Amino acid sequence: MNLLICTANQREGLRWRRELQAESIAIRLIALLSDASEGELTSQYDAILHIFGDNASQEIDRLSQFRLSQYIPVLAVVTQKNMGLACQILDAGADDFLPTPMDIREIHARLRCRVRRARLSGEEVILASGLRIDLGSQQAWWFGEKLCLSSRELRVLSEFAIRPGHLFTKDYLKMLIYGQRQIAESNTVEVLVHSLRKKTSSRLIETVRGVGYALARLDDRMRDPR
Prior knowledge:
Layout: E1 2-6, H1 10-21, E2 26-30, H2 38-44, E3 47-52, H3 56-67, E4 74-78, H4 86-92, E5 96-99, H5 104-120, E6 125-128, E7 131-134, E8 139-142, E9 145-146, H6 151-162, E10 168-169, H7 170-178, H8 188-199, E11 205-208, E12 212-215
Parallel strand pairs: 1-2, 1-3, 3-4, 4-5
Antiparallel strand pairs: 6-7, 7-8, 8-9, 10-12, 11-12
Helix pairs in contact: 3-4, 6-7
């Protein structure tokens, strides 16, 4: 396994590298996700171990930006001090998280699990709730019917389909649509979700009032999904 460890604390990073190298893992240390090029990430690494430290809020923003273009598994390590940010870290794009301290064998097992899942979906095709999304060709189908989606609609629908049932906050979806530095209008998310429902089913995306949205776990065998 080739692992990228991201932490601004060099001493902490060296400790993690020493312990994980004993598990026969090849490791590189970086301080920020932006320190690694996109081509390097996709070709050289199986997973990222992201250690959230004193600047956790800024690191969450960087992870959100990273997730706009990358699907490499990210396992977050969260200190007791930052446990209150666990939900935000997951919403930003982490696939799993572990509080410190933890057994190094458990973190290795979780890394293997995440890498295994990513490899099983290596064709970049997502299947969920009657949807089929091909990330390579940027096309989507709803119960076999090809959908005509904008790039933003496809981006949001793909995020929903990767984690069916997961609750995405409106703020996270706004960032997904526009990026961190652009300001979305107050009803941007509602308009986009309405459009996706109109093109698929009113039941596909569930609303949690005042919080956000989640992809419903619909039966893929339904003949009348609307």
